[in-house]
Structures are given as C-alpha cells and as structure tokens.
Amino acid sequence: MILAGLIRAFFTALALTGATQGHPTSTPNNPLKVVHERRDAVHREWRLIAPASATAPLTLSIGLVQRNLERAEEFMNAVSHPDSDQYGQYWTAQQVADVFSASDSAIAETKAWLLSEGVDVARISTSAGRNWIKVVSTVGEAASLLDTEYGVYENDNGARVVACESYSVPAAIKEHIDFITPTIQFDSGLVSTSGSVKRRRDAFAPKSKKLPAHQHPGVDSLKNCSEITTPACLRALYDIPANVEPVAGNSYGIVEFAPQSYNQQDLDGFFSVYGHLPNGTSPIINKIDGGFLSDEPGSGTRGESNLDLCYAMALTYPQNVTLYQVGDSVAWNTATNNNFLDAIDGSYCTTSGGDDPLWDATYPHDASTPGAYAGPPQCGVYNATNVLSISYGRDEAARPASYNARECMEYMKLGLMGVSVLFSSGDSGVAGVTGHCLNPDGSYAPVWADYGRFNPIFPGTCPWVTSVGGSALPPNGTVGRDREVVAYTFPPSGGFSNVFPRPAYQTAALASYYARHDPGYNASRYNDTQQVRGFPDLALAAQDYVTGLDGGFQAFSGTSASSPAFGAMVALVNGERIKAGKGPVGFLNPVLYAHPEMFADVVEGSISGCGTPGFSAVPGWDPASGLGTPNFERMRRVFLRLP
C-alpha cells in the first residue's frame, strides 16, 4: 500500500537526520528506561564548556504522539484531490483537534510517570489541543527524569544553550512521546553571555540593486521584462487579469517577522507609478506578539515586507490583503513560524500547545525594555486567510526531524481547513539557506567549503505546503515570444528532502523524472532513494522586481518575490470560485500535479551548489523548476470545474 510505504519511508528518513528515536536498549542507570533520542554528532560550531547547574530552572515540553497522523494523506486527499467526491468539504478547527489529539492513555500514562518520579501535580499542565505536556522543573530534576546529563554548550559568538547528548524515557511510555525539549537541540534559540535571548531565524533575504531613473520602465511597458519585473510584466507572463473586483469571503495573507516592516510611503510611491492604486492603500494589519513595525530605512528592515506587499496588493487590488506582523523589537529575529501558528490556532501555543522554548519566542518579554511585548502569547486571536504566503525558511538539517515533522503537520491541518500555504523555496541552489552543505554525518560543512551533501530547505520540503521556486525570461527575452528559464542571477533552491516521504501526488512525476532524467548523483550527495519529497512544486518570475524603498525604487531578486506573486494568482482563483458559489481551493498540490497543463514547462537552466552543477531543468517536473510556470486562465478553468 502507498500509505504504508510512506510511513516506512518517513521513519527511514528520520534516521538520516542524526536524531535516532526509540532504540529498545536499557540504560545503565535505569534498566526500565530506553534511549529515546541521541545526537550522533555535535555541530562543529558548538562545544561543551561546563556541566549545567542542577538548580537552574528548566521547563520541559513533552510532545505527545498525536493520533491518526498516519492517515494524513488519506484525509488530505479526501478534501483536495480532484477525483475525490469530498473535494472542498473542509474540516472545522474542532474536527481537526478532535481527530489528532493524543490519546487519553498517552496523557494519563505520561502524567503517571511524572507523578511517580515525584513531580508535583501543580507543575504539570496539558495543552488545550491535548498533544503537549509541560513540566516546570530544574536541570537536576529533568536530568533525573530523563536519565541524562545536561551541559552548557557555547559557540564562537559566545551564545550558550543547555542541552544533552541523549535522553531516555520509560519503555512503557516511549510509544506515547514524539520528542522532549530542551534535550539534544541547540541550533537556534541562543542565549547570549549577557543573558538576553538571541535566536536566529533564517530568511531568504532578497538580493537588491538600485535602479537609476532611466531604468524605470513605464507602468504598462513590456519592453524590459527580461531586465525589470513589474506588475504589468507578471500579468502578461501569466495571463493575470487586471481590474478585478473584491469578493466577500475572499482573503489573502502575507506573513512577516520583525524587524522586517513595510513602509506606507514606499507602498504609495510604488502604487502611484506601477500599481494604479490610490495613495494610502494599506494592508489589514494583524499584529502578533507585539507586531513591531520598524521605522528604520533600508533594505535590511523594509526590503522583504515592501516587496511582498507591493506585489500581493498590486496584483489583487481592490481585494484586501492581510499582513500578519509577528514579533516585537526585543532581540530581533526571535519570532518563528510557530509563533505565527499560535496566533491562528490557540491549541498550538507554548502554554497550551506546540512551541519549543529553545527556538520559538516566548512571551512576555521584560516590560522595562523599550518596545517589548509584555503580554501573554497571542493564541488563536486571528483567523487564517484563505491563502498564506511566507518568504522565510531554514535548513531542514537545522533542527531535529521530530521538530520539523511537528511543524509540517500543522500545515497539513491548515490544508484540511481549506487554507493554501505557500513558501518560497529558497535562494541558494542545493546548498542551505546560508550556503552550508552537509558532512556525511549530517553536520554542517564550513560555509567556505564548496563540497558535501546537498542541504534541502524547510518548510519547502514539507509535503503539505506548496513550494514556489524561481524562473526568469532569458537575457533579452520578450514576453509572449521566449520561454522562461530557471532564474540565473541567483540559484533558486530545490532538491529532495532528507526527512519527508514522497507524497502520493508526486509519485508519477518523480517516477518519470528518475526514469528519463536521473541526475546521476549517488547517496553521498543527496537522498537518492526516490522515496522522498521533491521540491519546488512550481516556479515563477524571481528576478529584479522593482520595489518602492526609501523614497525611490530598488530591484529585488529571490523566490521571496515568487511566492507572494503566485499567492495573488491563487487568491484571484479563489475569488472566481466564491463568486460561483464554491469554496477556496485549499491545499493545491494534488490538483497541480494532476493537471500539468496549467503550466508552461521550464526546460533550461540549473541550480548549482556544493561543488556540483546541482539539478537541471528538464521536460516535466524537476527540482530546478517544479512543474513549470503557471497560467492564470488555465488555473481558473481547472479549479472552476471542481466542486
């Protein structure tokens, strides 16, 4: 059976990450406990400097095994596969919570273990979603509970974390537990030597260049679309309609993380020249955990957000666009995708749900700090829009497979509720977000070393999101005459997951790819099992998007431009379906792969890295360009035929 094969492949892929779960081996200190996770190697940037103080406070988060996750594909296909008689019959949030919560026995037996070890009941809490147990503890008590030793690890920047090399749980409850934090993890969530929190959230920072006045194309000009991308170029390339009308019930959301902040004057400047939008047109702002909007100029704080909103809004106007602005001004780059998920799903919060305190920002922050958000985590305060575009990601190898899988399943749940989740694929070819390749043991090779295993990027590798790669007109190419190629001023990211099994919707596409265009690398370079998720799913123009910035214009390149532009197309399709009395399209991928006629194939270009040519564009799906570039009118026809 396909589903059984997927489950086997998933647990096989977990072994590739270096965090091995559940080996039935007794530990010396307690024969009733078994090793649950063990780190195979310490990343080269970290070193153990001292034992952790036994009296230091430590809060354990126990991720319980959720029920029915093995049926994820069955459930998703029922509501999103074009051949399903249940297409579009999405679930409510309560149905999702009821189906996937941990079992009563998992909760009861895990709590019984904690109580038997002397943990006071007042320090144990269960999440509203019934899939997390939190224990307010100390390093010493946690070490005893998990039969481990905690140490303080430090990197070259002076950042420190408390972690262990392995940990154990009673054999009788091992099957109830996904993972426990903090234990073997120390990628992000860094505590500096001064005690302030300094977490790293990787972003696909778009590449930019200033535009001299003589390079600015006319608002509707298509003469320079191979050099400068404008809304007019995108409409011409992908048959996107202009002069659309707003549709009640339709919605489109862009997610940004502080310090990235849009500037209204920059939007007005862009809209007045390229958007046909009146001055003052702004997004609906949903502020999350502070929702800090910086007033600092420059591409470092305005570029990403301005870029996303310029095109999301220009291509969908007068349909409203919602901005989810995540994080406060304290310790910039602290907020994560999970903090955003908190805000649209109250069962996923730290105090009542799914965060990891090592990586995800925890609130309140110190109220005496200027700009700090001193309130509680915002849990379930906003509804998700029908379409979400997110231009941020991280290396799949940066965190344990269990953490990635947990987050990925939240996107699956959004899909079940009818939400289309889009992520930029990344901008570094087959290397990681910061250009790191991988050593054979899964640790990072030096960033200056152009060798090693390919380093795929998450969440693009999650099978329940739509990963958007990058394309471009060839040099001196013309709209309507020349076929697009893989973006070439930077290498868009693509490849194959080391964690997630191949979803059924990709089976035929990947089989054809390997049968006709096997890239020729062996397992020393990438996961060549042919049983794992390939990404991206499609490509869209990604070079030189003219964007309002600091009172002028700059051109930005990156798949962080492609995703919001494609999201606008999906939002417009939703508008057409809603006008026809139908629902939003929800999770896109089963329909996309079943109808490749919606795409113009990209057959030229490649994505390099790690000392190799990487992957090349070929006929059909490939890891350089996915299914190709979309056509709005063909998308509209396909999706309007569905229930």
Characterise the protein shown here.
It is a single chain. This protein is of the alpha+beta class and 643 residues long. It folds into two domains: 32-66 and 102-196, no CATH class; 233-641, Rossmann fold, CATH 3.40.50.200. The protein has 14 helices and 31 strands. The strands form ten sheets. Strands 14, 15, 16, 17, 19, 21, 22 and 25 form an eight-stranded mixed beta sheet that branches. Strands 5-6-4-10 form a four-stranded antiparallel beta sheet. Strands 1-2-9 form a three-stranded antiparallel beta sheet, with no helix packed on it. Helix 8 (299-316) links the parallel strand 15 (284-288) and strand 16 (322-326). The longest helix is centred in the last third of the chain and has 21 residues, at 559-579. It is globular and about 70 Å long. Mean pLDDT is 86; it is low at 1-26 and 187-202.
